[in-house]
Amino acid sequence: MESVSVGHAPTNHSLSSQKLLPGKPAPLGSTPDAAGVNFAIFSAHAEKIELCLFDETGKEELVRHSLPGKTNDIWHGYLPQAMPGQLYGYRVYGPYEPQVGHRFNPNKLLIDPYARQLHGELIWCDELHGFEMGHADGDLSFDSRDSARFVPKSMVVDNSFVWRNDKHPRLPMKDSVIYEAHVKGLTRYFPGLVGRRRGTYSALGSTSVARHLKNLGVTAVEVLPVHYFVDEQFTIENGLSNYWGYNTLGFFAPANRYAMADPILEFRAMVRGLHRAGIELIMDVVYNHTAEGNEMGPTLSFRGIDNASYYRLNENKRYYLNDTGTGNTVNVAHPRVMQLVLDSLRYWSSDMHVDGFRFDLATVMGREVYGFDRGCGFFDALAQDPELSETKLIAEPWDIGLGGYQLGQFPQGWSEWNDKYRDTMRRIWRGDTGLLPEFANYLLGSSDVFEWAERSPASSINFITSHDGFTLRDLVSYAHKHNAANTEDNRDGHSANYSSNSGYEGETRDKQINDNRNRKQRNLLTCLLVSQGVPMILAGDEIGNSQQGNNNAYCQDNPIGWIDWRARRADRGLQKFLTRLIHLRRSQPVLRRPHFLHAARHSRASQVPDVSWFNRDAEPMSDGDWHNHESNFLSLLLPGDASDAVDELGNPEQGDSILMMFNLGGQEVKFQLHRLPAIGTQWELLLDTFGNECAPAAIHHEVVVRADSIVIARCYNGVNSPEA
Fold first, then answer.
1. How far apart are CA 89 and CA 103, in angstroms?
2. What is the pLDDT of residues 444-491, one digit of tens each?
3. I want to staple 312 with a disulfide (CB 3.0 to 4.6 A). Which of 329, 375, 421, 693 is the partner?
4. pLDDT recorded at residue 721
5. Which architecture, in CATH terms, is 596-715?
């Protein structure tokens, strides 16, 4: 075993002269104990691996130790006297033969895939590449320059932490209301936060932010990626950054950019603050690709450790399969790569108390050699894991590879982003016709997509807007994207937004146009909150936040991407409306059924089917009504006692009966309540999207549903009535 001193003035002579012992192959990563640190790293094709130690600044390399142990392709060694805080990296020796998939280059310092914390930020330069930039042979050439000065250093971390009484809320998925947010974007301008705290983990876990979310009715925050990620070189050159964070480099390390000092402690404090308010934390995770890009990308970690194992390569092995559109695709089907992902998920769930995960481009996670397989090893491993099987698992059910669109194909226990729901709701409220059957189907949880595999409505994550696309305000204010600030000549971002501007592009002071836009926002939010399934709200939509028509703000770490909470901008009336909507959803079990509704169950009191549809004349919908492209009115009746579900005490789950009237057209409808089945006599108007206020009021024989609006009423069951 060799040990090589590096540099002119080592500051830790004991470690420079210390002999590296064989150590153990598990656990992977750097694991401290009372006497030293064990290091373990996987590589199936390496010939030698050196552990490189750095001083406390990360700038000076002190010594290199060859790892003496190797067990089942795990290289390992134990360094006595090493302690938490020690900075390190790896140099991996082996063939540099891109034609057969190997890109080893020991001149490139590599990040430990299991590093819990990274010190410093990536500095883009030619030295990061394993080949000579600009060489005639391209990536087949070899670069002998040292990259250590420009690479973040891995850090040994003491993982002990006393959580005290913190625990996972474990709210049932069907009862969840998810709030998708960016750590910095949500908190940069949030009222009451000052100084360096703004835009941090600490800010998101603060009492003021948690109180806002709690008062709104949110049960879970889904944060955009907070794994350690890097900015792409081209964004930096354009004076921008990777704001969203979908460019992961460390699957265990929290991003330093959202911390004031210690990212691990501050992340845990954020989780504890949210849990104290009863709010879960769901992480958007990017295991489908890494920041190393295609064959012309840098060698930062996985590529230099074992390129042929970590990535999916095409037949000639030089090039990468690009099912993600980012240049590379992580090879989750490889046992050790799958272990890396599972170990990462367990760490965030067990050690960081994260409650769930949203998997970016999740089809990649189910890809075997022959394509996507809902019975693949990764999905099976998750289902059998006692810790991870209890977390919320959400799929973005597509990638750009062959057969990449897999909505409805994920296993039981998973929920999926439902883009069909999103597009149908957007289209029908902008005035598209012939969509009533689809509209009704998605209101009831998309049974055609999920029920075939005996899954529940909670499998559908319903959303109107997300980080990727227009905000809700922009959806009703812009007919076209306006992405010039991204410096890509407005070529980026989706063109099919199914948006409308009410006759004027962008912001206006025209009262009629703004009234129409406000009503459209309320219509869309109302559909979202009364649909079966799980609603997801984009942060800032509750106050009408705008991104100035930018529908791809991935690089806008500035006021375009940040939520503007200032009083003169914020629509507090919309916030109040959404709060009432969420309360309505949470107070009425009929809006959160655990099973799909097919008129197969009946009210215990009145024998009315569990779902009934009516036309503008309060008559049951006929085939002609459903397929008449001129039809623009639909009413839905859900009896409150037509379910076999039970509450926490084992009693039959029962709420009020809910009547929803959707007027999608331009003419007022007078809906006759007395023509409905005899489900009750005491009706109350709960909500009318035509006006900003919707105070409850008793109604009797007729309800006026004005053009382009929704009215919701309830019939008391005697439990929630004012007299009860």
1. 17
2. 999 999 999 999 999 999 999 999 999 999 999 999 999 999 999 999
3. 329
4. 41
5. Sandwich (2.60)
How far apart, in whole angstroms, are the C-alpha atoms of residue 580 and residue 574?
A: 10
Catalytic residue among 396, 438, 571, 708: 396
Quick one: tokens of 724?
Answer: 């009860």
Interval 487-533: pLDDT, tens:
999 999 999 999 999 999 999 999 999 999 999 999 999 999 999 99
Distance CA 555, CA 483 (A): 11
pLDDT, tens only, 641-679: 887 777 777 777 778 999 999 999 989 999 999 899 888
Report the alpha-carbon angle 61-66-70, nearest 5: 140
Residues shown for the chain: 724
DSSP secondary structure code for residue 382 in this structure: H
Active site residue 625: no
Q: HEC string of 220-261?
A: EEEECCCEEECCCHHHHHCCCCCCCCCCEEEEEEECHHHCCC
The pLDDT tens digits of the residues spanning 592-602 come to 999 999 998 88
Query: From the centroid of its chain, how far is CA 181?
Result: 9
Residues of the chain with CATH 2.60.40.10: 3-155
Task: Give the tokens for residue 320.
Answer: 């990468």
Supply 364's token pair.
């990649």
Q: 461 near 395, Cβ under 8 Å?
A: no
Residues 3-155, CATH architecture: Sandwich (2.60)
Q: Are strands 3-5 and 61-66 parallel, antiparallel or unpaired?
A: antiparallel
Nearest to 401, CA basis, from 456, 329, 453, 333:
329
List, for residues 56-95, the tens digit of each pLDDT value: 999 999 999 999 999 999 999 999 999 999 999 999 999 9
Please confirm, yes or no, whether 648 is among the known catalytic residues.
Answer: no
Q: Which part of the chain has CATH 2.60.40.1180?
A: 596-715
Asked if 110 and 133 touch (Cβ cutoff 8 Å), the reply is no
What is the pLDDT confidence band of residue 139, given thresholds at 50, 70 and 90? very high
Question: Can you point out the beta strands (E) in 622-708?
Answer: 633-638, 657-663, 669-672, 683-688, 697-699, 702-705
Peptide linkage before 27 cis (omega within 30 of 0): yes
**Under the phi-then-psi rule, with left for phi > 0, alpha for psi from -120 to 50, and beta for the rest, what region is 431?**
left
Residues whose CB is less than 8 angstroms from the CB of residue 24 and which lie 6 or more positions away in sequence, other chains included: 38, 40, 69, 76, 78
Instruction: Express the helix, strand and coil content of the chain in percent, nearest 5 each.
Output: 25, 20, 50
Catalytic residue (choose from 60, 360, 610, 688): 360
